[in-house]
């Protein structure tokens, strides 16, 4: 594989995926797309993008680019740069790497690139992001749209869902299936408004799959509500946290978005949750959560590391939720209540799973917030 690189703002890459090809202004103005080799890209970045953030590197397999590639010295720099003379077909992009400058504004070659061999070092499969929009198993092709509310709450509190069902307040809509059995989707009437309700399962892979299924059915605006471990001992049992970002220490999100340390919730969802909490006089904080796949591997050293980078809670699904939502173009946010205390060397359960009244209140706040999203 012959590797060439292209520097691009992340949002431009998102737009290219929506359009199905990448055609920057230079293609119209100059007739080609500017690229670099791994040996050239740092110099280009420091000269043209010094201090600029939100950039990514498109790692392009030159052998799979459909348009012609010419190596030229168009500006008498003494170097010949690769130029793509036509739109870039997205299947030639083999990896997308976050490309942020150092504190002094200068760039360094990402560790996943080998400058001498001009190849990707794919030692870690989790970093081999594939930007293709269509997968072999595509939810929209496997599941037909149904009559379902566009607003949906994914609630981790099975006791709350069971209580609503036993009270006769829920109408069955459909089942989400997996090897653990059927997972029912319900509809709930809230002050004359339709709201879908479903348990998301536990863990990022299952929760992301259920979210993708709900999107295929027709839901578009999501609030997730659940509990989380408190990394800040000052956050009491039941304290409300709105995750603005999630540290991606799980695996699922890397199949939906390019590798990055964090992923953000939808601003519209955060605004709706804040509006409801303020209207109902509920105290809360907006913060960063740590999403992990391994609750039994929350070691003291890792906990301190996450606290140092600003995480106030730890859970298992937020990063995947936010990544799926961004990839599918839907709105998603989350309300967490602080449960067990993992802020010190000794775990304190605080009997968080027995806080029925708190869990019910969190659910209704989530329902109200979801319906607040326009």
Q: What does this protein look like?
A:
This protein has 374 residues and is α+β, with helices and mostly antiparallel strands. It folds into 2 domains: 3-127, ADP-ribosylation fold (Alpha-Beta Barrel); 139-372, Nucleoside phosphorylase domain (Rossmann fold, 3-Layer(aba) Sandwich). It is 28% helix and 32% strand. The protein is built from 10 helices and 20 strands. It has helices spanning 10-19, 25-29, 38-48, 139-142, 158-166, 204-217, 267-279, 300-308, 318-328, 356-372, and strands spanning 3-9, 21-22, 33-34, 55-61, 68-72, 81-85, 88-89, 93-98, 113-114, 119-120, 151-155, 170-178, 181-190, 193-198, 221-230, 240-249, 262-264, 284-292, 311-315, 331-341. A 5-stranded mixed barrel has the order 15-19-18-16-20, surrounded by 4 helices. A 3-stranded antiparallel sheet has the order 1-4-8. Strands 3-6-5 form a 3-stranded antiparallel sheet, with no helix packed on it. A hairpin with a 4-residue loop joins β9 and β10. The chain starts with a strand and ends with a helix.
